[in-house]
TrEMBL record:
<dbReference type="Pfam" id="PF00168">
    <property type="entry name" value="C2"/>
</dbReference>
<dbReference type="InterPro" id="IPR011992">
    <property type="entry name" value="EF-hand-dom_pair"/>
</dbReference>
<feature type="region of interest" description="Disordered">
    <location>
        <begin position="247"/>
        <end position="275"/>
    </location>
</feature>
<feature type="domain" description="PI-PLC Y-box">
    <location>
        <begin position="344"/>
        <end position="432"/>
    </location>
</feature>
<dbReference type="InterPro" id="IPR000909">
    <property type="entry name" value="PLipase_C_PInositol-sp_X_dom"/>
</dbReference>
<keyword id="KW-0106">Calcium</keyword>
<dbReference type="InterPro" id="IPR035892">
    <property type="entry name" value="C2_domain_sf"/>
</dbReference>
<protein>
    <recommendedName>
        <fullName>Phosphoinositide phospholipase C</fullName>
        <ecNumber>3.1.4.11</ecNumber>
    </recommendedName>
</protein>
<keyword id="KW-0807">Transducer</keyword>
<keyword id="KW-0443">Lipid metabolism</keyword>
<dbReference type="InterPro" id="IPR018247">
    <property type="entry name" value="EF_Hand_1_Ca_BS"/>
</dbReference>
<keyword id="KW-0442">Lipid degradation</keyword>
<dbReference type="InterPro" id="IPR000008">
    <property type="entry name" value="C2_dom"/>
</dbReference>
<dbReference type="Pfam" id="PF00388">
    <property type="entry name" value="PI-PLC-X"/>
</dbReference>
<feature type="compositionally biased region" description="Basic and acidic residues">
    <location>
        <begin position="258"/>
        <end position="275"/>
    </location>
</feature>
<keyword id="KW-0378">Hydrolase</keyword>
<dbReference type="InterPro" id="IPR015359">
    <property type="entry name" value="PLC_EF-hand-like"/>
</dbReference>
């Protein structure tokens, strides 16, 4: 097919839009696993098992592949010819990651990394953007499991969500709660945690308790006598948990009853000592009954307490008590590991702490939840390197990110949580959870795996972009950058530039040494080379290395914000094996 590009009023350049041919490796594999030019269902099963590493593939899997190709004129009745086999390899049933949840989901919450948002209600920068329910909906639809809301008093004894002491607008808390209820379990049935940053008086806290109780009903997890350390994502399916600091007056009451009363206020101590003494009480509440909430118009407030529903006190809704370490890092690191709570540190505070106390942080995060959040100077809603929380196994479960922007840190975060079926929970590596031997992040990790990556070709850009998007005078000049992001730094490699082609072929292989593959992702970025300026973005994806499916795979590409393109993708081959060092 010819594609014209106008160079000037009098001159038009015409390029031939050719058909993409199967790579030689694909032709060879088809020849090896077919008979007389036709691949039967049994032949396909053999290919899936021996080449694609799908040892548990069944006849239903092969039949599903056949069914996706039957509408094509290239599909023979008896099986797949080379062209149909090639279309399968480039299709949506041949992705590099399993679409299913496959990790053990019965461990305590502290044993998982959790997909976490920061200031989840903001649509733009941290200083003057709009507060809205739209970013909350989008985050939940992308699999985020931890939503942060900042609660502030408003006129008419109401509660709003906004970024305090800035020019950001506000949105009513009730609207945010309803949005969470509607979209919480649209893409994942595993629990959603709402973290409140609470700036309310006691009477408004009671009002929040009423809103939360009536909005969520049976979806709300109400702490009982069970300790949080025994609760798992599996046991909390389709439940919403509240995490915030216990009310100050409640902590002071608990402290006044303590024989070792401190002279410092709970605010000065950060609530740490009092939180330890009250944690058990925070996990108990009387049994309550719920009725389905009647529909309320958007502008209305929650009605008065129903006779059929007992509204619990604010403190009794707190499933995960939180606190910010004060009084010195040494004191914080002496907390009782069995008193489960959420601790918060900024990215700067964590980096400073891990230089000298990395091993202690690993120990603390075996049972407690550690939340890391962006430093206050990130007014543009940019993000930090997520490996600040993950790198060298510090084990922070909640690495909180601004989800409304884009950039490489966010791509890495999105890639990490494509693992485990994209459910928003990723099991920590075993070396972070050993009971007797604490992992030491200051010690360099050995090379555990060797990853071979071969980039064959790409397609689909001509369907997702205008033909003049990359260059007004000619087809694009595509190249691919590929590299490892993880525990130990690894340099990025790149393919050659393929000139003037919407269907580039590279046939380039790379080899990477991977330390701690459970904490590493494979970064893939495609760009249009420009000799006279910066390269034009043409797609990206980041993939968790420990979950890569071996064999030849179709790798979908995403835009700058992480939204998957409809058609643009790469054909690649992955081979992940133990390094010789580990096999000795």
């Amino acid at each position: 097919m010819e594609q014209p590009f106008r160079v000037c009023i009098f001159c038009i350049r015409t390029f031939i839009h050719r058909v993409l041919e199967p790579p030689d490796d694909v032709k060879k594999l088809f020849q090896d696993y077919s008979q007389n030019g036709i691949m039967s269902m049994d032949d396909l099963l053999n290919f899936l098992s021996k080449v694609q590493g799908q040892n548990n593939a069944k006849e239903d899997d092969a039949e599903a592949i056949f069914n996706t190709l039957k509408h094509l004129n290239i599909f023979p009745r008896k099986g797949l010819n080379l062209e149909a086999f090639y279309r399968y390899l480039l299709g949506d049933l041949n992705t590099p990651l399993s679409p299913c949840v496959h990790q053990d989901m019965t461990a305590p919450l502290a044993h998982y990394f959790m997909y976490t948002g920061h200031n989840s209600y903001l649509s733009g920068n941290q200083l003057s953007s709009e507060s809205s329910v739209r970013p909350i909906k989008k985050a939940l639809q992308n699999g985020v499991r931890v939503i942060e809301l900042d609660l502030w008093p408003a006129r008419n004894n109401d509660v709003v969500v906004r970024h305090g002491r800035t020019l950001t607008t506000s949105v009513k808390l009730l609207r945010c709660l309803r949005a969470i209820k509607e979209f919480a379990f649209e893409v994942s049935e595993y629990p959603v945690v709402i973290t409140f940053e609470d700036h309310l008086t006691a009477d408004l806290q009671d009002k929040v308790a009423e809103m939360v109780t009536k909005t969520f009903g049976d979806m709300l997890y109400r702490p009982e006598t069970d300790e949080l350390e025994k609760l798992s994502p599996e046991s909390l399916k389709k439940k919403i948990l509240i995490s915030t600091k216990p009310p100050r007056e409640y902590l002071e009451t608990q402290d006044s009853n303590s024989p070792h009363k401190s002279e410092k206020s709970s605010e000065e101590q950060g609530g740490d000592e009092k939180l330890r003494s009250s944690t058990i009480n925070l996990f108990s509440c009387s049994s309550m009954c719920f009725t389905k909430q009647d529909q309320i118009d958007e502008g209305e407030q929650v009605q008065g307490e129903d006779e059929e529903m007992t509204i619990p006190k604010y403190r009794d809704l707190i499933a995960i008590p939180s606190g910010k370490p004060k009084g010195g890092l040494e004191e914080w690191l002496r907390i009782d590991e069995k008193d489960v709570r959420r601790l918060s540190l900024s990215e700067q505070e964590l980096e400073k702490a891990t230089r000298t106390h990395g091993k202690d942080i690993v120990r603390i995060t075996k049972n407690n939840l550690l939340r890391v959040y962006p430093k206050g100077t990130r007014l543009d809603s940019s993000n930090y390197d997520p490996f600040v929380g993950w790198k060298h196994g510090h084990g922070a479960q909640m690495v909180a990110f601004n989800m409304q922007g884009y950039g490489r840190p966010l791509w890495i975060m999105q890639g990490m949580f494509r693992a485990n079926g994209g459910c928003g929970y990723v099991k920590k590596p075993d070396f972070l959870l050993r009971e007797k031997d604490d992992f030491d992040p200051s010690v360099s990790s050995p090379v555990y795996k060797i990853l071979k990556v071969k980039i064959y070709s790409g397609e689909g850009w001509h369907l997702d972009f205008r033909h003049t998007h990359f260059d007004p005078y000619s087809p694009p000049d595509f190249l691919v950058k590929v590299g490892i992001v993880g525990v130990d730094a690894c340099e990025t490699s790149r393919t050659q530039v393929v000139k003037n082609s919407w269907l580039p072929e590279w046939n380039k292989e790379f080899k990477f040494e991977v330390a701690a593959p459970e904490l590493s992702v494979l970064g893939i970025e495609v760009s249009d080379d420009d000799k006279y300026g910066s390269p034009d973005f043409a797609g990206q994806t980041y993939l968790p290395i420990s979950e890569l499916r071996t064999g030849i795979r179709a790798v979908p590409l995403h835009d700058r914000r992480g939204v998957r393109y409809k058609s643009a993708r790469l054909l690649m081959r992955f081979d992940l094996k133990d390094s010789p060092e580990c096999s000795e």
